[in-house]
Amino acid sequence: MTGGKLDLSDRQDAERFIIENTRPIAPPLVPEITLRLAEESLPIWQKTEDELGELNVPPPYWAFAWAGGQAVSRYLLDHQQLCRGRPILDLGSGSGISAIAAAKAGASRVLAADIDRLALAACTLNASANAVALVTTNADLLSAPPPKEGVVIVGDLFYERELADRVLRFIDGAKDGGCTVYIGDPRRSYFPEGRFTALAEYQVPVTRELEDFEIKRTTVWLA
Question: Among 36, 156, 196, 202, which one has the highest count of C-beta atoms within 10 angstroms of its own C-beta?
Answer without folding.
Answer: 156
